[in-house]
Amino acid sequence: MMEDLLRQWDGESVLVHYDRPTDAWVFIAIHDRTLGMAMGGCRMHVYSSPADGLKDALRLAQGMTYKWAAIDFPFGGGKAVLAMPRRLEGQDREALLLRFGALVESLGGSYGTGVDLGTTPQDMNIVGRATSRVFGRTPDQGGAGDPGPWTALGVFAGIRAAVQRVMGSPDLDGRSVLVQGVGGVGAPLAQRLAEAGARVLVTDALAERARRVAEQVGGEIIAPQDAYDTECDVFAPCAVGAILNSRSIPRLRCQIVAGSANNQLETEEDAERLRERGIVYVPDFVINAGGAIAHGALEVLKWSRERVEARVLQIGDAVREILEEAEKDGVAPLVEAKRRAERVLEAARQGREEMVAAGH
Ligand code: PHE
User: How many Å apart are CA 351 and CA 356, to the nearest integer?
Assistant: First the structure.
């Protein structure tokens, strides 16, 4: 299983480590460093098998390559997955994070890590005791903190652009948006949507979390099993991936899918499936780039928060352009977004070849 996954993958390399004390597996996938050092978050999650964790790491790393390229930022695609047999807390968790940090350090700058699903800035503080190649530590430790609110800001801008495209006005007042997963990104997104006057519907695998956020933003709770059948203007997936597939797409009763989750499509064909249903799907790696932009810009490029905010809001412009081009060419927006990313990667490869040819 793992051999097949690796054979089919088109990335550079994967570091695999079995962590005996916790029975967890660590996968660090480096997909493409054409644009710079591989940079992407660290996901801590309970998988049914280590191979499922590896599969996630490979797809997430590829997504990061596209994400950085689509927004033309000087980083490569990589991701880490800590696949745990059960949830880890306290000392076990800390020890695993420290060993993970040592692995990142051993890569000598090929890969930098950060916050992703299941990890927090506090976790990054621990990782940071073993390596300097870490983003998203708490501000008192010199980090940029939680990327979630930045990602949410970009998703919000992207939703407005898509609503403008489909409904003729970006105004969210009275529009219904179903947020699937109200964690690090979904919660601040729900907040922004509510402030903009949207009717917010929230659903979450953790009932307690759904209740808390619904209360905070004055939203309605939808049971997880009803998420795909609920009528809404915008469906915003902000939890795990692969939720858009041949089973869920026929059920959808929305006009737009635009959310922060990575790898929302189970397969590439699902983009076409959505298009055939007349649903506008905003490619995940474009609309969810806000956290990546913010962390790259704040911690590496040392931009001011004002400059970062303006750059994150440009996600709205990118979404508008992609939807326009896709419609003009009669293709799914995913196809257009990938073309955009490929253009940037190709130009970088070309530039590098020219440097070599010129003897630099
Ligand atoms: N993990 C988030 C993402 O996938 C944000 C992030 C990106 C954090 C890159 C660190 C580095 O976009």
Answer: 9
